[in-house]
Amino acid sequence: MDFKGSETITGPRVEDHLPDTASAAVKIVIVGGFGVGKTTMVGAVSEIRPLTTEETMTQAGIGVDDNYGSDTKTATTVAMDFGRISITDQLVLYLFGTPGQERFWFLWNGLFEGALGAVVLIDTRRLEVSFDVIGRLEERGVPFVIAVNDFPDAPRYPVEELRTALDLSPDIPIVKCDARRKASSRDVLMTLMHFLHSLTGTPA
Predict the structure, then answer these.
(1) Other Cβ atoms within 10 Å of 177 Cβ, number
(2) Of 54, 84, 109, 158, which has the most beta carbons under 10 Å away?
(3) Which of 123, 46, 111, 113 lies closest to 77, judged by CA?
(4) Which pLDDT belongs to residue 1?
(5) How far is it, in rounded angstroms, from Cα 81 to Cα 41?
(6) pLDDT score of 103
């Protein structure tokens, strides 16, 4: 039958297919407050076209969403971001970016299910936003690393000052990154994978 004017339904793009060599897949969540760069990081590092659930911000969010430091931001994640990256020929990471506004945090519980580890993106202009984020990961026992997104106008602190301010144990890695850059974001994920490996007690 010929349905004129109907769209052609196509399957996944060739570049979106999971490599034949992949034998292990790991779920990773990227968390943080509003506007810290979660969607940017997933988009920068994903080898497939990322899935985003961004919606335009409206007047209804005034007084509800904290957009300090993100005054030019016009869209926000309302469910999740999703991407994929192959760390080796065998190991694939599935990336889930969480929504930043507190009114959407009820969705985090589902996104945390089955996650092997997490990246906590922070903005040093709003360190206080990270406290609840870190607390939720600690409550659920999800191992994490801290990635300090390098915003041009953000204050810069020594790593140990950040560790003290965030009340982190000495073993939790803190790295600086530029979430816009693939190589930098990939380095963050590699830091997380090395950290997770160290927790197993298996020699590298």
Answers:
(1) 24
(2) 84
(3) 111
(4) 47
(5) 10
(6) 54
How far apart are the C-alpha atoms of 90 and 87, rounded to whole Å? Answer: 8
Who's near 144: CB < 8 A, 6+ residues apart? 31, 117, 118, 119, 120, 134, 137, 172, 192
**Residue-wise pLDDT tens digits, 77-101:** 445 789 999 988 889 999 999 885 6
Prediction pTM value? 0.78
Task: Give me the DSSP letters along the chain.
Answer: ---TTPPPP----GGGSPPTT--EEEEEEEE-STTSSHHHHHHHH-SSPPB--EEE--GGGTTTS--TT-TT--EEESS-EEEEEESSSSEEEEEEEPP-SGGGGGGHHHHHTT--EEEEEE-GGGTTHHHHHHHHHHHHT--EEEEEE--TTS----HHHHHHHTT--TTS-EEEE-TT-HHHHHHHHHHHHHHHHHHTT---
Quote the pLDDT of residue 135. Answer: 92
Cβ neighbours of residue 106 closer than 8 Å, sequence gap 6 or more: none
Question: 174 forms bridges with which residues in the sheet?
Answer: 146
Q: How many CB atoms lie within 10 A of CB 164?
A: 11
- What is the rounded distance in angstroms from the CA atom of residue 9 to the CA atom of residue 88? 32
Smallest CA-to-CA distance from 80 within 129, 28, 148 is with 28
Where the chain has pLDDT below 50, the residues are 1-11, 55-65, 73-78
> Exposure string (b/e) for 66-99, b if CB count within 10 Å is 16 or more?
bbebbeeeeebbebbbbbbbeeeeeebbbbbbbb
